[in-house]
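Researcher: Let's do a round of design. I'm pasting the structure tokens now; please hold your answer until I've finished.
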């Protein structure tokens, strides 16, 4: 009798242990919903580091509510494909560059127009804080069915990096094959100066430089060094501030509307907290990358202010046509021109 009682107790203990192990196993535990965050740049890139800090803040603040997954290096999606991925629910948050938007939202192309040529970053910030910027955000959200999470973060000014002959003057653009990452206006602006704009996929770019199938590319100092493109024959830079490149944080409206108000506020606040430092980091990264390239004896040509203004005036003669070609709404372009007329009137 004692033996049977002891055996029964042993079986009960074993059963309890088994039940506890099943209940506490990952398979039994309720899996947290996932927020996937995607960027195209490599882990060494300043934008990636900034968005990663944002992801880490969400990990801390949403630890018991969501699992945060961060995907750099286009390991989930390329930025060119990110809008479809958001719409299909295959990613929750992305931070693509402004130059990827104009195919779907032509008005974003105004951020690449000649009015910005050679301008300081402060002009871009001022525009986005104006009614022009507010209208642009509303247009992005309506056209793509997304929520813009806050202020844009920076890549910085872009310039012309050449592997063949140096560019000393706008006349030297003539007949050059220049690679652009995207943005219809980028192509139109470069072609107005007499060059031929070409599109080459990012993975194929090193080989194109090595084989000299292009003469130059439109990009930034930071992008050159973080991707080690200086190892593929880049010898000259024409530092003309073609446009000020930024990244826009977006999530799909469908996903956003499923979130609690508390979670929405955590996401908005977390993004807001990283923006100022992200902009400072981007500026420092550009300076550091420029110094690094200078140390390797890459020639940097900085056009005079007079040359910049003269080039901008040449480009501005075609700006209205560019805006019409890519489909910027007349109302928004009128606001855009009024903004710059006021800027130039105060100089």
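Researcher: That's everything. Go ahead.
Model: Designed sequence:
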């Amino acid at each position: 009798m004692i033996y049977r009682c002891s055996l029964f107790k042993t079986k009960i203990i074993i059963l309890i242990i088994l039940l506890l192990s099943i209940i506490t196993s990952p398979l039994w535990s309720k899996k947290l919903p996932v927020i996937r965050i995607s960027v195209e740049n490599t882990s060494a890139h300043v934008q990636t580091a900034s968005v990663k800090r944002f992801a880490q803040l969400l990990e801390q603040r949403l630890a018991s509510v969501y699992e945060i997954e961060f995907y750099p290096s286009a390991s989930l999606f390329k930025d060119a494909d990110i809008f479809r991925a958001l719409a299909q629910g295959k990613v929750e948050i992305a931070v693509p560059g402004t130059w990827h938007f104009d195919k779907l939202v032509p008005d974003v192309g105004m951020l690449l127009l000649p009015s910005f040529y050679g301008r300081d970053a402060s002009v871009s910030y001022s525009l986005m804080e104006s009614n022009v910027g507010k209208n642009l955000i509303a247009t992005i959200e309506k056209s793509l069915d997304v929520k813009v999470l806050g202020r844009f973060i920076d890549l910085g000014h872009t310039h012309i990096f050449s592997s063949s002959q140096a560019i000393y003057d706008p006349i030297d653009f003539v007949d050059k094959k220049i690679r652009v990452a995207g943005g219809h206006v980028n192509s139109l602006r470069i072609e107005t100066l007499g060059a031929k704009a070409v599109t080459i996929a990012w993975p194929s770019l090193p080989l194109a430089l090595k084989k000299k199938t292009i003469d130059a590319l439109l990009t930034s100092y930071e992008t050159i060094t973080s991707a080690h493109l200086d190892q593929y024959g880049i010898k000259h830079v024409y530092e003309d501030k073609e446009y000020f490149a930024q990244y826009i944080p977006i999530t799909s409206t469908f996903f956003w509307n499923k979130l609690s108000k508390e979670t929405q506020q955590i996401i908005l606040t977390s993004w807001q907290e990283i923006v100022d430092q992200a902009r400072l980091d981007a500026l420092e990264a550009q300076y550091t990358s420029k110094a690094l390239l200078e140390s390797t004896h890459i020639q940097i040509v900085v056009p005079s202010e007079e040359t910049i203004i003269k080039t901008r005036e040449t480009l501005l003669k075609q700006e209205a046509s560019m805006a019409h070609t890519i489909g910027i709404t007349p109302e928004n372009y009128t606001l855009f021109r009024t903004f710059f007329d006021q800027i130039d009137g105060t100089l």
